[in-house]
Design brief:
alpha/beta; 5 helices; 158 residues
Length: 158
């Protein structure tokens, strides 16, 4: 049974990393986010970062995925849904995840500088946090970390 669960988790995290690669190719910070309805394992929303494309500081993959999922299920809460993200969400996105009531958050790579879940302000541990999703991290972390390092190295060379 656990093998099926790991295969499923790898599938959805793999999709998040594919989206991160697409962001990289579009000169965006390589982050991808996928929201899945748990009851049927259906992807209901999937985005990569689009800050440059949309010229918006809040066009993070997680925020875009949450907005679309809310519209699809026609509810401001995403109960019965999970999010897979290639990088630890920032504090803004972590708070949006909490407000959305996502059941589980999976993320690949840690973000020691800008994270808001297990690094930085640890939003889910704050007294102002009304909902703490289950958090699982590290799945496909090496792949995501390599992509991020490559992106930022290319920026330093310019």
């Amino acid at each position: 049974m656990r093998t099926q669960s790991l295969d499923r988790d790898n599938l959805f995290m793999g999709l998040a990393i594919e989206l991160a690669r697409a962001a990289y190719d579009n000169d965006e910070v390589p982050v991808g986010a996928v929201i899945v309805q748990t009851r049927n394992n259906e992807v209901i929303s999937a985005f990569s970062n689009q800050m440059r494309k949309q010229r918006s500081s809040i066009a993070h993959a997680e925020m875009l995925a949450i907005q679309k999922a809310n519209k699809i299920i026609d509810n401001e809460r995403l109960i019965g849904c999970e999010m897979f993200v290639s990088l630890e969400p920032c504090p803004m996105c972590a708070h949006a995840i909490s407000i959305s009531r996502l059941d589980t958050l999976y993320f690949a790579a840690e973000d020691s500088k800008g994270g808001g879940v297990i690094n930085g302000p640890k939003i889910f541990e704050s007294s102002s946090c009304h909902h703490k999703p289950e958090v699982k991290y590290g799945l496909m972390a090496d792949e995501s970390s390599k992509l991020l390092r490559s992106f930022f190295k290319s920026k330093r060379l310019k």
